[in-house]
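Predict the structure of 30S ribosomal protein S1.
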Amino acid sequence: MAQNISMEEFEALLQESFEIDTPQEGSVVKGKVIAIQAGQAIIDVGYKMEGRVDLKEFANPGEEAEIAVGDTVEVFLRAAENARGEAVISREMARREEAWDRLEKAYADEERVDGAIFGRVKGGFTVDLGGAVAFLPGSQVDVRPVRDAGPLMGLKQPFQILKMDRRRGNIVVSRRAILEESRAEQRAEVIGNLSEGQAVDGVVKNITEYGAFVDLGGVDGLLHVTDMAWRRVNHPSEILTIGETIKVQVIKINKETHRISLGMKQLQDDPWDAVAAKYPLDSVHKGRVTNITDYGAFVELEAGVEGLVHVSEMSWTKKNVHPGKIVSTSQEVEVMVLEIDGSKRRVSLGLKQTMRNPWEVFAENNPVGTEVEGEVKNITEFGLFIGLDNEIDGMVHLSDLTWEGRGEDVIGDYRKGEMVQAVVTEVDVEKERISLSVKALGGDPFAEVADGVKRGSIITVEVTAIEDGGVEVDYEGMKSFIRRSDLSRDRAEQRPERFQVGDKLDVRVTNVDAKTRRLGLSIKAREIAEEKEAVEQYGSSDSGASLGDILGAALKSDD
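Done. Here is the predicted structure for 30S ribosomal protein S1.
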């Protein structure tokens, strides 16, 4: 019985010695390099166990393995024995375990870790952190997008651990965080040495639509496009190129955001200081059209000095036309200075003022009464618009189309594009209006006929029509109407039907109305006038002579 107990104790002690001497699988053990053969290191890990490890597992990315016979190294024991009776060991896994311990401590202490980028994967790069492989997102490589990461491959440099999960084997690192931190320190130092108004040299790093970023030696400043030159700059690339060294002035420094505003034009003389003296009002200068808008065109008088020609000041005759149809970009034009506002840095220019007012020219060349010819440009409900010299129009009102009848009745006889002759009746330069008359071409027939005909005159007319209200008569081609009540002094004789077309009648002119172009005629007025005249010459009603006696005496006298 005692012998059996001693044997059990012996076996337990033997088993305990095996457990103490034999390394545990899945752990990191120390071993000794006993040989190097065929690109592999043979390592004795104790208890007569040997294993093989490729030499590349002892090398850092981009470097040769530094290992020799007799070196003591740490390896990871994956299995105590394989099919060939050798231990399955890995230096890479040992390094990984060691690295994870080290990296977890650095992550907890928010310390930087050294590593090297050795591969490219989707969305970023792989980084060797001394045994552990981490992922470097593309957005975390640099403060700005990197087009070529070749120079960074295999280069040992610091990284910041952003996230790590040992169970899943995930580590995410950032190179950008390190650069931003060091850049912030450098930025603070550079900004501390700058002051507003200071002139410094810088290198153009980037050009955008709105300006350029200039490196001032570790810190970038923004040079806005409006601060590049006194003249208009459409795009920064017109005057700057990437990599160019330029002199700029510090306009503003924001201590909180570390933003720096720069300017180039501030180092040059302001051309506006001499604008008032150089460009007096009403003076004419040559300039170049730099920009065209819906409301006008900008004309550069000199570098840094631009003026606006408003659309209303572009042409005497072209109204409601887009400025682009009058001038073109880069065209050289003559303009007149209309107004200068130095505080707002504005110059108002006029294009049409450099040319004579076409209405003034027309008035000088075509006084009232002049006959002109032009094309019918437009036909409206109130008259015709006739195209004249220098692209101006004159208007023939309906009332000036014909002497007889209504203008509404004859305007339909005209066609657009037809050539028409007319007489100038009025020119209003201020209102830019020209009045024309077609009916005045042959003179005024009424004025010609009525010339010499006065109120009280006796004229002979011819009956042209018989109507219930009177008779229509003609006097040298001019129509008039004698009302029934004016046909005779005797009421019984005031009958239109007693006359016939073609009868010749002596009538008295009672009215000459140039406005309505009518003669007032009356037989009754003629008879009354004749009676009055006879009474005055041959007697009066008081002498006892009858009217027949008086008229008989008058007739004998006439005979």
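The radius of gyration is 57 Å.
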